[in-house]
Amino acid sequence: MLESTTGTDAVGLPLPGFERACAEVLQLLQARVGLGLWMVTRAVGTDQVVLAARTAPGSGYDVSQGASLSWDGSLCAAMVAGRGPAVAPRVVDVPAYAEAPNRQLLPISAYVAVPLRRDDGAVFGTLCGFDTAPQPDSLHEAEQLMAVLGQLLATVLRLELDLDRQSRRAERAEVEAGVDALTGLANRRTWDIVLAAEEARSRRYGHPASVIVLDLNDLKAVNDTSGHEAGDALLRACAAVLRSTARDNDLVARLGGDEFGVLAVETDPAGATATLDRIRAALRDDGIRAAAGLGTRAGDGTLSAAWREADSAMYADKLAQQRSGRSGPRRQDPVV
Question: In angstroms, rounded to a whole number, what is the distance separating the alpha carbons of residues 225 and 127?
Fold first, then answer.
């Protein structure tokens, strides 16, 4: 957990970013308001990802950065939907809060929260506090302070995300030189660099991200029967399909040999599955046989783990195709 930088020498100095701002806000709220647990969370699909957390000694809570809870089952989702107030000194008095499934996971008897919103009004997440014991009605006095702090966090977040988008574009431009000479896609070194950068973003902001791994079925056979020029044409044809079906923000790379990867940034499992379905359909249309797998970075996981998951799923798909014979017709005449 980050410690505060606030002190006599730090007064008036800008904070270095959203992560530090979260730590300072949570420390201030715990000092001024009390409560056993304070969090900044990100709503990602059906998940509530913890971006920052601060617990009081002996609070009875054990929640840390990266933890993933149910968004649909949370008090925060009910608050955002207008089914409960921003401040509930006694959770049992609010039916939507008292019946929230997340109370089966965390002991919650008092609750305060404000939404963190994007410029368009969409909910990014929440700034929220909890306690295992009911609180006096004076807890309502925290509402104005939390509203101001929530707006400040949302402002810092917006500015940092804007800078982060610029940084991502600069990174992609910088690594454009790191391409695979045959296909024009990013090479393995570029893939590793961008994967590490996106992992840092996912950890900081709770961004979802997914990895797709694809392996050609017929490269060796094409090389053996039609020559390496035809094999090279097959690789280029596959690269063209991936490039045309991936989104502009996604990274498409040749990982080596006949293996390709797609890093789908800020993409949850549903979005990644849709991307994979487009890729598979386009490959079938071009008569290119391949096995593919998908892995998604969970709230407390990593992109490296998602890559391993995608790789395992790809090998399982390849084995299933071999057993069932459902891999489709082989492309006979790759365009050179």
Answer: 62
